[in-house]
Write a structure and sequence with these properties.
Blueprint (H helix, E strand, L loop, with lengths): L15 H12 L16 H18 L5 E7 L3 H11 L5 E6 L2 H10 L4 E6 L1 E4 L2 E4 L14 E3 L2 E2 L4 E2 L12 E4 L16 E5 L9 E7 L31 H12 L1
Parallel strand pairs: 2-3, 2-6, 6-9, 9-10
Antiparallel strand pairs: 1-11, 4-5, 7-8, 10-11
Helix pairs in contact: 1-5, 2-5, 3-4
């Protein structure tokens, strides 16, 4: 069979070594005589794999100990709602920096839960799309958090600056197409979320890195999605919450 190279934005290609290991474990996982899709997500063998995947992810990104790493169902779009629902607390507004399609999508969803203060960061330089530097971003004084997307794939705009707005500004960022592609100073963010399908594994999984103090925010009327333990929900087949991404993370560490 001829090798086909997939250059689409996602789902992205997985390394051949990762796919080969997943293939071998599809029918007999860990010598248990059963498929990885059939074992209990509460079983000790799978819990061990889940814990190792989280450890490997933390090691790759140097995630500080006061941050939780959550493996959540679904794509990154679900976090467009989860961010305001979990961080707003008693406040009614949040700052959103609009640099392209994905930021605009997050803004549209946020309007269901708060009144976003939208700063249009888009500019044109010599006929090309660009974005204003962070020092020019206009943030409000009463916002619960500030949200932006560092890589607007549809618009062809990347924001490589590291946010430095002071310790009182909670920065939330959509890293779906950026995660694991470069070092990140996690301590500069309150929340980082990323769909797995770009750089980690198959679609159907989103990883959230959230500072622990933000999980204590008071929310009324809605259930806080982030505080539900991952193991209480049956993980979807091949993503198995952390199995295939776990193989990829080991491959990344060894690469």
């Amino acid at each position: 069979m001829a090798q086909i190279f997939n250059f689409s934005s996602g789902p992205a290609m997985l390394p051949a070594e990762v796919l080969k290991q997943a293939q071998q474990e599809l029918r007999d996982w860990n010598g248990l005589g059963t498929s990885v899709m059939e074992v209990s997500h509460r079983g000790k063998e799978f819990i061990q794999v889940a814990e190792e995947a989280e450890k490997d992810f933390r090691d790759l990104l140097n995630v500080p100990s006061n941050y939780k790493v959550l493996f959540c169902h679904g794509g990154g779009r679900g976090q467009f709602a989860a961010v305001p629902l979990n961080i707003l607390g008693d406040k009614t507004t949040a700052d959103y920096v609009d640099a392209g399609y994905w930021a605009a999508s997050a803004i549209k969803e946020a309007k269901k839960y708060c009144t976003p203060n939208v700063f249009d960061a888009k500019v044109t330089v010599d006929g090309l799309r660009a974005v204003k530097p962070m020092r020019e971003w206009q943030l409000s004084d009463n916002a619960a958090y500030m949200h932006y997307c560092p890589n607007e794939t549809i618009d062809g705009i990347a924001i490589d600056e590291t946010p430095d707005f002071g310790k009182d500004v909670v920065v939330a960022a959509d890293f779906s197409s950026t995660i694991l592609s470069r070092p990140i100073d996690v301590s500069r963010y309150g929340v980082i979320y990323a769909g797995a399908q770009k750089n980690i594994g198959p679609a159907g999984l989103t990883i959230v890195i959230v500072r622990e103090d933000l999980l204590a925010k008071r929310i009324s009327r809605v259930r806080r999605f982030w505080i539900i333990p991952s193991s209480t929900i049956t993980a979807p087949c091949l993503t198995r919450r952390r199995h295939l991404p776990g193989i990829y993370l080991v491959w990344s560490l060894n690469g």
